[in-house]
Amino acid sequence: MDTKEKVIITVAPTGAWPSKKDNPALPVTPEEIAADVCASREAGASIAHLHMRDAAGQGTMNKETFKETVRLIRERCDIVLNLTTSGDLAATDETRMAHLIEIRPELASYDCGSMNWMHNSLFLNPPPFLEKLAATMNEHGVKPEIEIFDGGMIYNALHYQKKGLLKAPLHYQFVLGAAGGLAATVENLVFLKGLIPADSTWSALGIGKGHLPIMYATLALGGHVRVGMEDNVAYARGRLASSNAEFVQRAARLVREMGKEEATPDEARRILGLRGPEIKPAGGARP
Q1: Which of 8, 25, 151, 254 ranks highest by number of CB atoms within 10 Å?
Q2: How does pLDDT run across 14-63, given as a tens digit for each residue?
Q3: CB 205 within 8 A of CB 225
Q4: How many domains does the chain have?
Q5: Is 74 within the bounds of a domain?
Q6: Domain that holds residue 51
């Protein structure tokens, strides 16, 4: 099947905010995250978007925690790794980028603008930081995943593309339903899709109750999808998800119902123009 008929399923297993009080199955240690990610790979995910937690369970940008988690994943499976640059609102600019320099992941998040976050804090991504982050990614061969919470962030991305800091074709991740950003509605998804250049690739997610409507609409519009406990701890009304793999299994079923197939990691690499992993897995991955 041509890669045009392949759908990339990204799993976001942890995030920075959900806790085991929200769902006891949430993975938070390097060992838990690695096991969860590789189970999600077996279920059909081709990309893992990773956040780290400290010993108290809070979001952290500690590069050693990233390195240990990446090592454990690479020992077990070949999934594409997409590392966050925004796992701790108090982190310095340097801390937000240090793990990229040492690990050189294939993908990393590039949150293309500042916003009020959850009506209680500021998520700051000012122009000097975005320019420095783009330069660091370019230097170390990391493709930015352009995180979009509002329409103006797309115009920021186009500005940095025009300046040569972001290299076309860009890959966008529409994040809908975060308090302070665009609501998780099909109308907003269609609006955002209409703003990006024709050569772009894109994926979308809806937080919480917007999860399924946005996934259905994204598949109908030809996009890629993201699922996982970072964005939604409940599998259905009144029932918590048993694992991140359960979310991936449902997404894969919906992809196949539409006459398409879930992309393998290597197919995702071809679709997004990635360079390939630095370290090959020890074995046991689904071909």
Answers
A1: 8
A2: 999 999 999 999 999 999 999 999 999 999 999 999 999 999 999 999 99
A3: yes
A4: 1
A5: yes
A6: 3-272
- Say whether the peptide bond before residue 169 is cis (omega within 30 degrees of 0): yes
Residue 93: Cβ-neighbour burial (10 angstroms; 0-12, 13-18, 19+): middle
Q: What is the per-residue pLDDT across 163-220, written as a single tens digit (0 to 9) for each?
A: 999 999 999 999 999 999 999 999 999 999 999 999 999 999 999 999 999 999 999 9
Residue 280 in any domain: the answer is no
Please answer whether residues 260 and 207 qualify as being in contact, where contact means their C-beta atoms are separated by less than 8 angstroms.
no
Residue 286 lies in a domain: no
**Tokens 């905010």, residue located:** 17
How far apart (Å, rounded) are the C-alpha atoms in residues 237 and 242?
A: 13
CATH code for position 66: 3.20.20.70
Pure H helices in the chain: 30-43, 63-74, 93-103, 127-140, 151-162, 186-193, 211-221, 244-257, 265-272
Burial class (CB in 10 A: 0-12, 13-18, 19+), 247: buried
Say how far apart CA 25 and CA 274 lie, in whole Å. 31
Domain membership flag for residue 287: no
DSSP string, 155-220: HHHHHHHHTTSSPSSPEEEEEE--BTB--S-HHHHHHHHTTS-TT-EEEEEE-GGGHHHHHHHHHH
